[in-house]
Amino acid sequence: MRGRKIGLLGGSFNPAHDGHRRISLAAIRLLDLDEIWWLVSPQNPLKPKEGMAEFENRIVAARKIARNPRIKVSDFEARIGEQRTARTLAALKVTYPQHRFVWLMGADNLVQLPKWQQWERIMALVPIAIFNRPGYTYKALNGKAAIKYRKSRIIGHASDRKRRNLAALTPPAWTFLPETTIKLSSTQIRNYRDTEGNTCS
Ligand SMILES: Nc1ncnc2c1ncn2[C@@H]1O[C@H](COP(=O)(O)OP(=O)(O)OP(=O)(O)O)[C@@H](O)[C@H]1O
Ligand SMILES: O=C(O)c1ccc[n+]([C@@H]2O[C@H](COP(=O)([O-])O)[C@@H](O)[C@H]2O)c1
């Protein structure tokens, strides 16, 4: 199989929303990626189980939102029985040695990253792109992860070849993408459904 450049958007997708779709399309454009895989997490170890919709329902809803042949919704973590990103990434690299992966996440998760299991191993496994997210920009760019890895940050505009070619760089390498500012979140949708009296699944 031909090697491709793939952006990995890991998430709870509880539920998926148009923000996920918009950042995915932005990543394809800005980082010259071939595909985005939405890695639906069986259960984020740092989030409460209560209020987490059934895995299968989150997958089905994510497929409806993705609506693009270059965005693939994946149950890889459920299939290998994994919830920890470091181990998922290691498994993906072994399973698909022909592909180049970039880990994608919002600025809120860069703030949280030092709480993840083996977070420095994650930095060493794949290049990472961080999406701007309203309310988190300052905290993310001045947080523990950003400071510790400041020398590995690729700073550049959309036209910058090094940033565009992030997938080909040897990690640790990360960049911040200020191009999107999207207020949508799953929390908002869950809150709206609750006030409307609908169920969350
Ligand atoms: N509007 C957004 N802008 C930038 N990144 C986003 C946005 N929405 C989600 N993401 C990122 O997409 C990934 C998956 O997000 P997730 O499924 O947790 O959705 P969420 O909206 O952050 O959910 P919740 O509100 O329940 O925390 C995370 O890395 C998250 O930071
Ligand atoms: O590996 C960890 O310890 C870890 C801790 C918290 C979150 N993650 C991953 O971070 C991704 C984003 O999660 P979420 O819930 O913010 O969408 C998702 O793939 C989770 O599995 C991973």
Produce a short descriptive summary.
This protein is of the alpha/beta class.
Please tell me about this protein's structure.
The structure is a single chain. Helix content is 39%, strand content 16%. The protein is of the alpha/beta class and 201 residues long. The chain has one domain (5-200): HUPs (Rossmann fold). The chain has a six-stranded parallel sheet. The longest helix is centred in the N-terminal third of the chain and has 13 residues, at 18-30. The mean pLDDT is 96. Residues 9, 11-14, 19-20, 23, 105-106, 108-109, 131, 133, 182, 184-187 line the site of adenosine-5'-triphosphate.
Sheet with the most strands?
6 strands, parallel
Helix percent reads 25-40%
Mean pLDDT: 96
Q: What kind of assembly state do the chains in view correspond to?
A: single chain
Keywords: ATP-binding, NAD, Nucleotide-binding, Nucleotidyltransferase, Pyridine nucleotide biosynthesis, Transferase
GO biological process, one term: NAD+ biosynthetic process
Pathway: Cofactor biosynthesis; NAD(+) biosynthesis; deamido-NAD(+) from nicotinate D-ribonucleotide: step 1/1
Family: Belongs to the NadD family.
